[in-house]
Automatic annotation (TrEMBL), chain A:
Top-level taxon: Bacteria
Lineage: Bacteria, Bacillati, Actinomycetota, Actinomycetes, Kitasatosporales
The protein's name in its UniProt record: FMN-binding domain-containing protein
Biased composition annotated in UniProt, kind: Low complexity: 26-51
Gene source species: Streptomyces clavifer
Ranges of residues in domain FMN-binding: 59-132
Pfam family for this entry, one: FMN_bind
SMART domains: FMN_bind
Region of interest (Disordered), ranges: 25-51
Automatic annotation (TrEMBL), chain B:
Class of the enzyme per the UniProt entry, highest EC level: transferase
Organism listed in the record: Streptomyces clavifer
Pfam families, alphabetized: ApbE
Record's keyword annotation contains Magnesium: yes
Protein name per the record: FAD:protein FMN transferase
Record has Hydrolase as a keyword: no
Amino acid sequence: MKRAIPVVALSVLGLISVWRYEPSLGPTETTAAPDPAPSASAGPPGSSTVIVEGTTITTEKGPVQVRATFEGDRITAVRMLQQPNHPQTKTAVPKLVAQTLEVQSADVDTVTGATITSDAYKESLQAALDAKGG
Amino acid sequence: MGFPVSLRVDDEDVPERAADAVFAWLREVDERFSPFKPGSEVSRHGRGELEPHELSEDLVEVLGLCERYRLATGGAFDVRLPGRGFDPCAVVKGWSVQRGAQLLRAAGARRFCLNAGGDVVASGGPWRVGVRHPEHAGRLCTVLELTDGAVATSARYERGDHIIDGRTGHPATALLSMTVVAATLTEADSVATAAFAMGAEGIEWAASLAGCEVFAVVAGGQVLRTADFPVAEEPSADV
């Protein structure tokens, strides 16, 4: 059991550092702090709902402002009041490039295409490439 | 389903039997997985003659892939269409050719190009892979460069309206061709067929998959491709 003591002590130390840790929301911390600051408005009477509007923060992508709703000391909703109109803030939609259909001839090693039957193969580009390769 | 297979191996120290092993494997796949052979494992499974414990590991793997893409496409890709037998060819082809490429690697091949009926596994490139033009059989619509990876194309121009949108039961006709580049042919071939079955919305679906690059020709002749589709440098003057 001797060994258990330093382990327990370490665990306690670990816990203390967790307790001491205050969640940081980064640059938006000031806006979401559970401090009924001047910009806060009380919710409906009889409830502990507090709505806090953050200040507008300018980021390199544009202005950001959030509104956080607290039930007691718990955040129950966060709404973006302002957000940059920037692709990164939207859902990751694949970026597609549109172009016109070209007709090319070029030196290639092989050809991809819809599955061809053995008959069609005789006339295909791939057959020509295979013949060239010997 | 008969299709031509072309194999080019540039490593000098790879024995001929490595290539023989690839072709033997593909013949074995045809025997076991062809829905056109009444005695194949696939046909027997399709007729409900096999108990779950009688399925081979390979067939279980194929069934898993089929189900994965059926779910991912909202049923557009379906290997069990009403009125048709169980036909997992769209998955089996890419999966089996990828396995063939792994046999080559295991035998020491590093620089090779395996083309099975238009589906390509490339290793140790750069390899220049032409994409067949959907309207001109002898021409290309783009050229891509592959170092290590796979590319597959689904289209109607060779075998007609053979890809059915499982949601409607009708042939998928919104796309002229759908070419997908991925790390393995298992993925490239399945995704190309599944996206083709979905139609126009299949372009965004395939493009959103991590590791997939897409080159789609829409009916009418417009091309939509992902920004990172590996288009080869302009061909040199010897065209």
